[in-house]
Write a structure and sequence with these properties.
Blueprint lengths: L25 H18 L1 H7 L7 E7 L2 E7 L13 H20 L6 E9 L8 E11 L3 E11 L5 E13 L4
Helix pairs in contact: 1-2
């Protein structure tokens, strides 16, 4: 005997679930990042020294959408090592900073957790006066951990990505959001 189709309402999916919140516009995400950076740069002397403050900006946030942002920085003497190239510790600090900002793009959160692991690959270099583009990407933001990727490119004279300087990965504990 063939089974009869069921019409029991308890077996059908419910439409009573809350709708997904609207995804913020790219402009709203960029405004959130600008505010987030302005408050964090004042609170962090190392970020203020390397990336600037609202009154003396060095880094410029150029675009943002959910899970990704870009920024540009012209390298000054305090970004360089004794050989005249982008200092490794500056690169690692940028990976730390950019990983946090990438997480902030995910859902406009005000806190982005604490570092669990940072890995930096040094592929090439940039020197005094070079402009670099920083891309931060939130690869996964979960309930306890977030994983991000950061790339730093040297830009050519036309402002286009020329060579990849740094590739970084950053994991953060985000549970206490």
């Amino acid at each position: 005997m063939a089974a009869q189709p069921t019409t029991n309402a308890a077996l059908t999916p419910s439409n009573s679930t809350e709708p997904e919140p609207p995804t913020p516009s790219d402009a709203a995400i960029l405004a959130h990042l600008q505010d987030y950076f302005a408050t964090r740069s004042v609170a962090s002397p190392i970020y203020a020294f390397l990336l600037g403050t609202p009154s003396e900006p060095q880094v410029r946030l150029t675009s943002a959408s959910r899970g990704v942002f870009t920024a540009r920085l012209t390298l000054a003497a305090h970004h360089l090592n004794s050989g005249g190239g982008l200092h490794g510790s500056v690169s690692a600090t940028i990976v730390d900073w950019a990983g946090g900002l990438a997480i902030a793009t995910w859902d406009l959160r005000a806190g982005t957790g604490v570092s669990v692991e940072i890995h930096v690959e040094y592929l090439s270099s940039a020197k005094l006066g070079d402009e670099v583009e920083i891309e931060g990407r939130a690869d996964r933001v979960g309930g306890s951990l977030a994983f991000t990727g950061v790339k730093i490119w040297k830009l050519d004279a036309e402002g286009k990505r020329d060579k990849l300087v740094i590739v970084g990965r950053h994991a953060k504990y985000v549970k206490a959001r």
